[in-house]
Design brief:
The chain has one domain. It is mostly helical. The chain is flat, with a radius of gyration of 17 Å. The protein is about 85% helix and about 0% strand. Keywords: Membrane, Transmembrane, Transmembrane helix. This is Inner membrane protein YiaA. It comes from Ferruginibacter yonginensis.
Length: about 130
């Protein structure tokens, strides 16, 4: 049986997602880098958010006995890992201060965590509302 997430956990999840995304985007906006490099980091975070939520959904579907194709499950994991690798390679090779690299890495991880937690809370709440 799914337990309803507390309002505090829902709020913390949304706050983590918001701080991660807004912080990352403000950092990109203010960064002194070419537009194509900003586009790379923007694409990596958007693709990472989507792929991490896809992994969470696949794992949850499997736990609940909902059919998930192995190809989609594998692609979701591959995409998530690829995004982390691409961000790591990009930051390693970037001409940024170490503090800036750390900022992007932590904002990215916070946004990914927030997206997964928000998706989980949404699904838990939906399941509980359907069983009432």
């Amino acid at each position: 049986m799914t337990q309803k997430p507390s309002n505090a956990f829902k709020a913390a999840s949304w706050i983590a997602l918001g701080i991660g995304i807004v912080g990352y985007f403000i950092g990109l906006w203010r960064a002194d880098m070419p537009l194509n490099e900003k586009g790379y980091y923007f694409t990596v975070v958007m693709f990472g958010l989507f792929s991490a939520v896809s992994v969470q959904k696949c794992v949850r579907d499997k736990l609940e006995g909902i059919a998930v194709t192995e190809i989609y499950y594998g692609l979701s994991w591959f995409s998530t890992i690829l995004c982390l690798v691409l961000l790591s390679i990009g930051l390693f090779n970037a001409t940024l201060l170490p503090s800036e690299k750390g900022f992007y890495a932590f904002a990215y991880v916070l946004a990914i965590f927030g997206a997964i937690a928000v998706q989980k809370n949404t699904r838990d709440t939906q399941n509980i509302n359907q069983t009432k």
